[in-house]
Amino acid sequence: MINLFTQISKYLNIVIIAFYTYNAFRVFSLTDKDKKDKIYRKMKRIIYLFHFVCYVVIFLNTSSLKVVELYIVQVAAMSIIFAIYPWIYSNISKLLLNNMMLLLTIGYVMLTRLNFDKAMKQFAIATLSIVICIVVPIIIEKIKKLQKYGWVYGALGIAILLSVLFLGVSNYGATNWITILGFTFQPSEFVKIIFVFCIASLLSKRQDFKYVVVVTVLAAAHVLILVLEKDLGGALIFFVTYLIMLYIATSQPLYFFAGLGAGCVASYLAYHMFSHVRVRVAAWRDPWKLIDNEGYQVSQSLFAIGTGGWFGMGLYQGLPTSIPVVDSDFIFSAISEEMGGFFAILLILIYISCFLMFVTISMKIQDLFYKLLALGLSTLYMFQVFLAIGGVTKFIPSTGVTLPLVSYGGSSILSSVIMFSIIQGLFIMNQDRNEKIEKKRRKSQKAKK
Amino acid sequence: MRKLKRREENPKKQKNNKIFSFHNNRSKENKENQGNTSAYSGELEEAKVKKDGKNREIIHITYMFVGLFVLVIGYFSYFMISKSNEVINNPYNKRHDLLAEHIVRGKILSADGKTLAETVVDDKGNETRLYPYRNMYSHVVGRFSKGKTGIESIENFHLLTSNDNAFVQIFNELSGEKNIGDNVVATLDTKLQEIAYDALGNQKGAIVVMEPSSGKILAMVSKPDYDPNEINSNWEKLVEDKENNSALINRATQGLYPPGSIFKILTVLEYMRENPDYNDYKYNCTGEDVFNSVKIHCYNNESHGTVDIKKSFSESCNTSFANMGTKINMKSFRELCDSFLFNSNLPTNLPYNPSSFTISGSSNVNEMPQTVIGQGKTQITPLHAALITSTVANGGVMMKPYVVDHVENVNGTVVKKYMPEIYKTLMTPEEAQILTSFMEETVKTGTADALSGKKYTSAGKTGSAEHQDGKRPHSWYVGFAPAEKPEIVVSIIVESAGTGSAYAVPIASKIFDAYFK
After folding, report:
1. Residues A43 and A20: beta-carbon distance below 8 Å
2. At B170, phi and psi to the nearest 5?
3. Closest Cα in chain A, distance from residue B126 (Å)
4. pTM above 0.90, yes or no
5. How many Cβ pairs closer than 8 A exist between chain A and B?
6. Would A180 be classed as within a structural domain?
């Protein structure tokens, strides 16, 4: 009977999340506010339903009362967040809020299934992050001087990265962790955001060649330090984000392609200089040959995805724990194994829906600094999703980055929530301004009459 | 998503011109923007013009990312549809054991419908894997416990997957019953397997019987063997292997042997390719000769007199072949052997050892006389010898060998069918025809004349491979029948038995007789 419910639930989840995803794209084509709000309410209900179904399955399979407690606390937290955000910010993007909550929920469910303690921790950190980040939109909207400190951001970023290089601890082969007051975290997750502020600020001021060279040197310094820390995923994310921001700021495809060329040369050099790069590439080319060592993780991941098939094995019916680091970098494989390949594709589409919203916001903003900021963060986010999913499906070599909002990891969650909040801030800022403009126009029209 | 794109496209087209006109004085404008954010709050129109300044680029980036993710989803779907089956069948995939909790392992059946392996469930629900033919299929069908081998290993996933009626499956799930796994139907023929198995008798060795036109393996025997029913109780003894039997090894695919004279098939092919006037070839054999500084004997120092190329082959004249060897380019000989899958992977999913051929352009010429007659450092597996022989029989086209014909559900509905696949064309039909005529001569008048005068024609090559001083040579025979339209290929090795003519040819005769009865 438990098995039957587990099996039925996996089909049900695919259906309701497919409906959610459809709506997450449909809202882009709608302009009527009431219609949109109706869809957002529908999406919210789906999140609650999905959450409920999954926790029933988890409870049936574990018979643990702790699961029920966690569920209740999560529902409470979720309803408070859903209530408080629109109350403080009337002009919030509900699509982003819904998507963020759904991604977090998918993460909670999978983590509870994989490791209860980590799921609790994840939930605590995520909730705390959201509470803290309530102030972020106000900061973005009210503090107009944010765009003035480009060089300060740059110096700060470099300083943090350097301190990690010298004081950091190694974890999974990369030296990108640091311990302060007993908390271990990954500073590059935050430097990413500072970096986008830095580049947005600098490139919004001037775009002449000399200046661009100087900024590029600064960006290259970031990337280089990350390479020295052996944080390849991080280095790639910084690199691509810079390239794209540069392209937007200068409108020069030449810079973009020159940068891409330089990136290819650098990758070639990195391949020949660093053995850990070669190991990753070898494991990507033929994980089966190296199945006992370097290829183990990727092949386990492919076993998981393949055995799960399109509909998945159902929660608790697979063997996701056989994949090393499954709760963080490889959580996509676990989701695909137990919830199904269709579900995994829907997850990708939800990420794309977020990205399209990010980009839409960026396009609506007029000020170049904020425009670049929004676009830089979108790139940061989307490229990381690409590296994470591409890596575990053997589309590209694995670079060991987390899946934003879903993977376990305090630093990753906090930085993702900050990113979403900044974008929310930009959206709210833009909406508020439009409303002002609208009001003024109406006033002047009235005056004319 | 499509709707959004369309929505974006229109402004893009309309505003292209404006974008270009801004191009040069953009930085100036931006400065204005910064210093004066409130200035444009009133002028919606002006703001609208400005905001489009960078949106063309942003749209490019959006397309780029959406394109990237379309590729990811495409790759993911491609993996799910056409790769995953092969991937998850890997013995390293621990998930197979999970499936076993819900599925009763399916049967392995022969091509003629006999049960080769089945799982029997007793009243208490205990499952036992039974092998009715005991030792006969111990290597090719393999075993289930102590590390799966053979078909039990390569088809593990299908045996543990049920494609039974969906309603039956749901019903079973509800009532807590296990579903019945799919059956795997092998290409093996019990009649031929039995004949081959009995013909090898108590000798060590291996036999591969295959269909050259498709690559189907019809029989595969390796001795010494073991009873897979008793594997758990005999395991220690088999691993310890006091008598040096290596019974756990599938000699047919993993046993590496010197090829002896069967290798002359490749030598004569190389000689013909390099010397188009091979029809004029003549050599006077006195039973013994020196090439470079290497002395070569014919078997028992028998002198064959004046031989042409055909007679050299059919009489397996070593001195004549060593003589041909002096006219063969070592580098291109290596290329030929590499193309015939020496030193590389065989196109099969059965576990095997790759054959080796070590001569290269830089080798010492003194290695050649031994190498061209199949001695020296060359090593080959019986399966590989069967593949080369099949290539000749199949007009120069090598087919990929396979042991599983299809997978069917418990009701007999075919779930997955394995089709014959071409590996590569390795020689021209003319070359295959000439080699066939040489091999026919071997049967008509040469070393395999015990096969002449049958009601079927056949073609082949014997080999007596020296492997250790003081021991009798390994006895080889590779051949096919009927010679003009080959239906069946055999590759036979009897370890340390004696000449190919005396020990391997009679086994081939029994197999052919049974097949053409």
Report:
1. yes
2. -65, -40
3. 22
4. no
5. 161
6. yes
